[in-house]
Write a structure and sequence with these properties.
Elements: E1 2-6, E2 12-16, H1 19-63, H2 73-83, E3 86-89, E4 93-96, H3 98-107, H4 114-120, H5 127-136, H6 139-142, H7 145-171, H8 182-194, H9 197-208, H10 212-236, H11 241-248, H12 253-262, H13 266-292, H14 295-304, H15 308-336, H16 345-350, H17 352-361
Antiparallel strand pairs: 1-2, 3-4
Helix pairs in contact: 3-15, 4-5, 7-10, 7-13, 8-10, 9-10, 10-13, 11-12, 13-14, 13-15, 14-15
Length: 362
């Protein structure tokens, strides 16, 4: 900005003073200084956080006794021979003896019960035995032996827990039930989630005894807490457009909930239910460790007898069960997505090496 000034002798002069121009460099310098100070504070903050995490990690290792000099690597490596039996062919070449695993799996009926399966797999077929298999022995799960018991615990827990999770999850959403009444249902699910499934099993043992029944009810309770929470989160993210459209047409609150809200999350609800079913089968193994039956009970029995080869065989059976459930769940979930190419189970398994190679080449 230019200003005119009058001197003492009456002449007029001009002082070219650009206030704004002179302030620009100062403001730029001030901004750069603020940026540098912000970066210094962030660097100090990250340094302090990393130092704290390192300190906490050392403390955690000490609390778990991993810093104990008695926890030696040699002890761990020596114990591996008990889990992995080695047979030397020609007295020189070492091979892992899978035959011992297979023999124990067949002996204990971990994956297949020949007595129940004999009713179904026979030639020529016997209609009386087939009827007995489905309606007298109820052998759809029992045919898989101990793995079938574990699978049944996860399945029953999912089936019993799903309707309660749907009700609690729907009523726990603030879109359906206003605050603070929705917190009653949220708080109930939080209380259920705070107690692990294995503790729920211990709670139900005095009522149902130590066995698969207590485990199945415990898994059902765990399903209510976990699956209900997932349902609440899905309902919180739905679009408002269909809901507002139904309100303008005079729809009632139940109609809005069923046709305006739940219709938007139907596919997500089914996918989350299948995911929880996978988790429940794993929980079935966990609760079996305390005596609820199934593969978990066989695992802890062999561990108590220090029969580590048989224990490893049981772990192999658990892996086969879990991977089978995941493949089945994946096929169902993929059919819910219209953009996925449908593949059969055999194509999914046989084509895995090719898909892996294609993925690595991308």
């Amino acid at each position: 900005m230019t200003t005119d000034t009058t001197t003492s002798d009456g002449t007029v002069g001009s002082d070219a003073v650009d206030d704004e121009g002179s302030d620009v460099p100062n403001r730029i310098a001030e901004q750069f200084e603020n940026i540098r100070q912000t970066r210094r504070r962030r660097a100090l903050g990250w340094t302090g956080l990393l130092a704290f995490l390192a300190f906490a990690t050392v403390q955690a290792f000490a609390a778990t006794e991993l810093l104990n000099p008695d926890a030696r690597l040699e002890t761990f490596t020596d114990s591996l021979t008990g889990f992995f039996p080695i047979t030397r062919h020609f007295g020189v070449i070492p091979f892992l003896d899978f035959g011992q695993y297979v023999a124990f799996i067949r002996q204990e009926n971990l994956l297949y019960d020949p007595e129940i399966g004999g009713l179904l797999f026979q030639f020529p077929p016997n209609l009386a035995d087939i009827y007995a298999f489905f309606f007298l022995e109820l052998g759809i799960f029992q045919i898989f032996g101990e793995a079938g018991i574990t699978l049944a615990m996860g399945f029953v827990g999912t089936v019993l827990g799903f309707p309660f999770a749907l009700v609690f999850g729907t009523l726990g959403s603030e879109r359906v039930t206003p605050f603070p009444f929705n917190f009653i249902f949220r708080g109930t699910m939080s209380f259920i989630r705070a107690i692990p499934a294995i503790i729920w099993t211990l709670i139900f043992i005095p009522f149902l005894g130590l066995g698969p029944a207590s485990a199945a009810i415990a898994i059902a309770f765990d399903t209510i807490g976990n699956l209900g929470r997932l349902f609440v989160d899905e309902l919180e993210e739905i679009e408002d457009g269909p809901i507002e459209a139904m309100r303008t047409t005079g729809a009632s609150k139940p109609q809005i909930v069923f046709f305006g809200m739940l219709s938007q999350v139907r596919t997500a609800f089914i996918a989350w239910t299948l995911y929880i079913f996978e988790i429940n089968v794993r929980i079935g193994v966990t609760v079996g460790v305390i005596g609820a039956g199934g593969l978990g009970y066989v695992l802890t029995s062999q561990q108590n007898l220090l029969r580590f080869t048989e224990m490893m065989a049981t772990l192999l059976a658990i892996f086969l069960l879990i991977i089978s459930v995941e493949l089945f769940s994946q096929r169902l979930r993929s059919r819910l997505r219209s953009d996925d190419v449908e593949m059969g189970i055999w194509e999914l398994i046989a084509g895995f090496p090719r898909r892996m190679a294609d993925s690595m080449l991308k």
